[in-house]
Design a protein that fits this description.
TIM Barrel; two-stranded antiparallel sheet; 10 strands; 15% strand
Length: 325
Amino acid sequence: MEMKYRKCGYSGIFLPEISLGLWHNFGNADDYINARSMMLAAWENGICHFDLANNYGPTPGSAEETFGKVMKEDLGRHRDEMFISSKAGHRMWPGVYGDGSSRKNLIASCDASLRRTGLEYFDVFYSHRYDGVTPIEETMQALIDIVRSGKALYAGISKYPPKEQQIAYDILKEAHVPCLLSQYRASIFDTQAINENFEKASENGSGIVVFSPLAQGLLTDKYLHGIPVNSRAANPNGFLQESDVTQEKIEAARKLNEIAKERGESLAAMAIAWLLADRRVTSVIVGASSVSQLQSNLKALGSSPFTDEEMITIASVTKGLIKES
């Protein structure tokens, strides 16, 4: 399926409609050959945007190391054709400075991330979260200085609440380092950011990048009959907990799967296409555990437009289940 690209907010940047995230399956606890194969398959299929964060692993930092190794051995000559992002703000190292959104944490994290990836600069560097403690002025000034130092070409924010989101935009705009990208979690099962943050981003000229479009696997055929062995929900240390896989969500996923079948596509492809139907969205980040899974997700690019009836039916299926404002 041929990749499509969308203009990113008020900028000259275009991103692929589907990007590859290295949150899971790219750490040193994972198989390097498989991780390399997924990165190369992504590139060969038109994915030029790779999304990282300093704490991605496990162990924290190792996803960036894996990415750097593949860049050095395979993709380095394509650097100018690629858009590479990283972030800082969640727990990364011991001590009081290894977490949060302080200037010290962001600048030290950016320097360390560049060393791990072997890159000279990031295309965009994000504040990974509003920590509720650090003044937004301090965090945004750190991003401004990171950009002005040449360590990143653009600044971005991730998961900021609406009030702090607007303050961040205003500070960055005043400094002539506008927020290129705003990254939020969203899916058919989680519309909070769609309701609270998307329009604010669009009005301020920021592109929108969505992560967790498949609700950690709930919007695939994996959990249609319960929790399988070796799934994320079966792992007590995983991000998706067994308590998240409720019978109500399983039933909703089954109904959504029937809609997808009628459309001639998988539930996962439909869930990604549902997000891309919102023209405010610049790109949807997908994770993958195999090349075949990545290729399956890419089929969303060939999805037919949704009819009004389909959108109404999808909304009715998820009413009362979705996380919303």
